[in-house]
Specification:
Order of helices and strands: HHHHHHHEEHHHEHHHEHHHHHH
Distance between the termini: 37 Å
Helix content: 55-70%
Strand content: under 5%
CATH superfamily of the largest domain: Fumarase/aspartase (Central domain)
Largest sheet: 2 strands, antiparallel
CATH topology of the largest domain: Fumarase C, Chain A, domain 2
Radius of gyration: 30 Å
Strand order of the largest sheet: 1-2
Number of strands: 4
Number of domains: 2
CATH architecture of the largest domain: Up-down Bundle
Number of helices: 19
Length: 442
């Protein structure tokens, strides 16, 4: 990805959480924690572990340029990083560098740490988008809007229920991400998972390393059992799908011919050729970022098939795929939070469209009201004439009915009023669930 496109596709704090610098910070955090865990198990002197921790906390002491240059030669960045750490701490304290570990232990655990940080950023944007959706649901609980199925007008619903659906999707995505993060495990097994190089204290070191990093421990290494990565991929893909659904709703509702919502921003939305345009750029960008997620999820699922105790290539393919997935989902969430925060809803426009869509039920109600005095055939013809009059004059049928003196116009309009069923009750339920979620996080 070039810097020119980063404003769209690397937006939000998730991108920084998986940057090149973040990779180094995470790798060093794992090596420092491993040194301390080894010291707690009595495998290395505490002074040596302190020296390694100090070196990891001061990357300026390390020859990271050489690490970058040699990472491809080793197949991963850990071997040159271990050499740089060893040189930085000196021969005496080098005993606490990379104790009993293999490169995959460090890379996998670093990837887990970065994922946790990035998902924290993604969650913050999803929470902001959910808060805006909740406010929209609350403010427009009973505002009637035409429901659309297969992109055609269907029956009436409310904008409150539509926004409550958005809210449920976003809250659901957050819960799934939180579940995936809560189970993120440390990786520590040594060369082939036997912990043979850990002096008989490998299981103890793994537990201590997990505690140091705030991760779960495991009974066995997950070198080629990639469930943690797959769980992340699935939860991130779900989040992207939820964001995309909300975003495309906004894009469709903001079409000029519909104009039921609009993004209001002083800084974006214009066209290079048409100065009158107000494009829903935030929703469009959210959708664009979310569209990239399924392919990356597929790559990570495909990489689950891994050979023996370390995969030849499938493991490596996960690093950029998961990094890019975190970035693109983070960008989508960030854009959607902005879109919903800037959304202006036109209840009048929605009502007018719903009223026009209700022409059929209203004509039937008018005919029913006229039947006792005119008879059914004449009442039918009178209602049809009223409909033609409305269309010819460019007015709504409702306005024509209101002008009639031969029926109780209010009663006719009431009889043809849109039936939105239990929309309001469902909005209230979604808002209650959202409140419970947010109060539980406080």
């Amino acid at each position: 990805m070039t810097g020119l496109l980063d404003g769209t596709f690397a937006r939000g704090a998730a991108a920084a959480a998986v940057s090149g610098d973040a990779w180094f910070r995470s790798l060093l955090a794992v090596e420092a924690a491993l040194a301390r865990a080894a010291a707690s198990a009595g495998l290395v002197p505490t002074t040596a572990a302190d020296a390694v921790t100090a070196a990891c906390a001061d990357p300026g002491r390390l020859d990271l340029a050489t690490v970058v240059a040699r990472a491809a030669d080793a197949g991963n960045p850990v071997p040159p990083l271990v050499r740089a750490l060893t040189e930085a701490v000196g021969e005496r304290d080098a005993v606490a560098v990379h104790v009993g570990a293999t490169s995959q232990d460090v890379v996998d655990t670093a990837l887990v740490l970065m994922s946790r940080d990035a998902i924290g950023a993604i969650d913050a944007d999803l929470a902001a988008a959910a808060a805006s959706a909740a406010e929209l649901a609350r403010a427009h609980r009973d505002d009637v809007v035409v429901g659309r199925t297969l992109l055609q007008q269907g029956l009436p619903t409310t904008f409150g229920l539509k926004a409550a659906g958005w809210l449920a999707a976003l809250d659901g995505a957050r819960l799934r991400l939180a579940e995936a993060v809560a189970g993120l495990p440390v990786q520590y097994g040594g060369a082939v998972g036997t912990l043979a190089a850990s002096g008989g204290a490998g299981v103890q070191v793994r537990a201590a390393l997990a505690e140091e990093l705030g991760l779960a421990t495991t009974a066995v290494p997950w070198h080629t059992v990639r469930l943690p990565v797959a769980d992340l991929a699935g939860a991130l893909g779900t989040a992207a799908g939820s964001v995309a659904t909300v975003a495309v709703d906004v894009v469709l509702l903001a079409q000029s011919e519909v104009a039921e919502v609009a993004e209001v921003s002083a800084s974006r939305g214009g066209s290079s050729a048409m100065p009158h345009k107000n494009n829903p750029v935030a929703a469009i960008s959210a959708r664009a970022c979310a569209r990239r997620a399924p392919g990356l999820v597929a790559t990570l699922f495909a990489a689950m098939e891994q050979e023996h105790e370390r995969a030849a290539g499938a493991w490596h393919s996960e690093w950029p795929a998961l990094t890019d997935l975190l970035v693109t989902v983070g960008s989508a969430a960030s854009w959607l939070a902005e879109s919903l925060a800037s959304l202006r809803v036109s209840a009048d426009r929605m009502g007018a469209t719903a009223e026009a869509a209700a022409e059929g039920p209203l004509a039937s109600a008018l005919a029913e009201a006229l039947a006792p005095t005119l008879g059914r055939a004449a009442a039918h013809d009178a209602a049809a004439e009223a409909t033609r009059t409305a269309r010819a004059s460019g007015r709504s049928l409702a306005s024509v009915v209101r002008e009639r003196t031969d029926v109780d116009a209010a009663a006719v309009l009431a009889a043809a009023a849109p039936d939105v069923g239990e929309a309001g009750v469902q909005v209230d339920a979604a808002l209650a669930e959202h409140t419970a979620l947010t109060e539980g996080e406080a």
